[in-house]
Design a protein that fits this description.
378 residues; Rossmann fold; seven-stranded parallel β-sheet; single chain; alpha/beta; two-stranded antiparallel sheet; 13 helices
Length: 378
C-alpha cells in the first residue's frame, strides 16, 4: 500500500486525522530535499499543529471509533512521525523530542478512549464461556440499563432467557431489574415485543414484523429473536434466508444491534440436521462479525464446563451417560442436586427444561447487554 493509500485509510477514522495525513505526505515527499534546518523545523511545527487539531477533534468532538480503528490510525501516525524524524537527520534534538511526545500523547488518547452506544464491540459470541455474571463490571450493568432499549421476539423456548432474568433479580438483587419501558432505573426490555418467532408462522414473516416494530419504536436499539424448534427441520436454504434477512435489517438500521441466535438442542447429536444448521449460523456470524447468542451451545455444557454435546443432549438437558444411544441422565438436575439452591443456583421457570438452563441463559444475556453497551469483555 502506498503512503497516500495508508494516509487515506487512517484519515477516514476522524475528520481531524485527514489534516495530519495530508501534511505528513507533503513532509515525507519534500522534507528530505530541504537543506535549511530552520525551514525543516518550521515544517515540523506545522505538522505538530495539525496533530493538535487531530487530537482536539478526537477529544472534543468525541469521535466514536472502534478501539481497533483507533489503534490502526495511531500506528500509521506513529510510523509516519518516525519516518519523518529519520529523514530529517539535521533537525534539532528538541524537535525530535516534541515529535516523540506528540506520538506518545496520541497513544495515551487511543488507550484511554472508550466506545459507546450499541454495537460498540460488534462481533461477539455469547455462549457457555460467558456465564460468569460476577465478572461484568457494575458500571457496564448500569450503562446497559441507561443506554439500551431492547425488543425481544420469541415463543416458549425463548422465554428461558427472560424467565431466567426474572429469577436473577431475586437471586442477585435489584441491579438486574428489567421491565418494558425501563422504569425505575431498570433495563428497558420489551418481552414478547413482536408476535411469533424466527420460524413461526414461517421463516420470513418475522422480518416484516421487525420493520413495522422499528418504524413505530424509534428508540429501540437492540433487536433479538429466538427460534423455537424450527432449526431442527430447516434446510440450508431456510437458514440462508434467515441470515440474508438479518443482514438486510443491519444495513437498513445501522444504529440497531441485531442479535442472531442458534436453535435449541433436539437430541439429534453432532451428526443431526440441527447441529449442521447451527454451525451454518455460527460460521456466518464468525465471518461477518455479528452478535450471536448461542442458545444451543449454552445447553451443551454445565456451569463447570463439562461438555455434553457429543452425548445426544436435548433441550431438557437429558443426555446419554454411557454411550448406548439412550438418554438416561440429566446434567442440569445432576448439577443442581450437587449444589446449593439459593447459593450456587436459583429456582425459576424454564420452559421445556430445568432452572439451571435458564440461570445460565440469564447470565449470558447480561453479558450480551453489557457487551452491546460497550464493555470489552475484560
Amino acid at each position: 500500500m502506498t503512503n497516500r493509500n495508508l494516509a487515506e485509510s487512517a484519515g477516514s477514522s476522524a475528520s481531524g486525522g485527514k489534516v495530519l495525513c495530508i501534511c505528513t505526505i507533503v513532509v515525507q515527499e519534500y522534507a528530505k530535499n530541504i537543506t535549511d534546518t530552520t525551514f525543516r523545523a518550521l515544517i515540523i511545527l506545522l505538522v505538530l499543529r495539525s496533530f493538535c487539531i487531530s487530537v482536539y477533534t478526537l477529544v472534543n468532538n468525541k469521535v466514536k471509533l472502534k478501539r481497533s480503528d483507533n489503534q490502526a490510525t495511531f500506528a500509521y501516525y506513529f510510523m509516519s512521525y518516525m519516518r519523518l524524524i529519520g529523514n530529517m537527520n539535521k533537525i534539532y534534538a528538541d524537535m525530535k523530542k516534541i515529535s516523540l511526545l506528540s506520538a506518545i500523547l496520541m497513544l495515551m488518547i487511543v488507550s484511554c478512549s472508550k466506545d459507546s452506544g450499541p454495537a460498540a464491540e460488534k462481533g461477539t459470541v455469547l455462549d457457555h464461556s460467558t456465564i460468569d455474571i460476577s465478572v461484568i463490571p457494575s458500571e457496564w450493568i448500569t450503562k446497559a440499563k441507561s443506554d439500551l432499549h431492547i425488543a425481544y421476539g420469541h415463543t416458549s423456548h425463548g422465554s428461558q432467557v427472560t424467565s431466567g432474568m426474572t429469577g436473577l433479580v431475586t437471586f442477585k438483587g435489584s441491579a438486574y431489574t428489567w421491565n418494558n419501558g425501563g422504569t425505575g432505573g431498570a433495563l428497558d426490555l420489551h418481552d414478547y415485543a413482536m408476535p411469533g418467532d424466527l420460524g413461526n408462522p414461517n421463516y420470513t414473516q418475522w422480518e416484516a414484523v421487525t420493520r413495522t416494530y422499528l418504524a413505530a419504536n424509534s428508540d429501540v436499539n437492540v433487536i433479538i429473536w429466538s427460534w423455537c424448534g424450527q432449526v431442527s427441520t430447516a434446510t440450508a436454504d431456510n437458514i440462508t434466508t434467515y441470515l440474508s434477512l438479518m443482514n438486510g435489517l443491519e444495513e437498513d438500521f445501522p444504529d440497531v444491534a441485531f442479535v442472531y441466535m442458534t436453535g435449541h438442542l433436539d437430541g439429534g447429536g453432532l451428526n443431526g440436521n440441527l447441529h449442521k444448521r447451527n454451525e451454518q449460523i455460527r460460521e456466518y456470524c464468525r465471518t461477518n462479525n455479528t452478535w450471536l447468542f448461542d442458545f444451543a451451545d449454552i445447553e451443551s455444557y454445565n456451569p463447570d464446563g463439562a461438555y455434553f454435546g457429543d452425548k445426544i443432549p436435548n433441550d431438557a438437558c437429558d443426555y446419554d451417560s454411557n454411550n448406548d444411544g439412550v438418554r438416561d441422565a440429566n446434567w442440569a438436575i445432576q448439577w443442581q442436586n450437587s449444589h446449593t439452591v439459593g447459593v450456587d443456583w436459583y429456582s425459576c421457570s424454564s420452559a421445556h427444561s430445568q432452572p439451571l438452563n435458564a440461570n445460565m441463559k440469564a447470565y449470558a444475556a447480561w453479558h450480551l447487554w453489557a457487551r452491546i453497551a460497550g464493555w470489552d469483555g475484560r
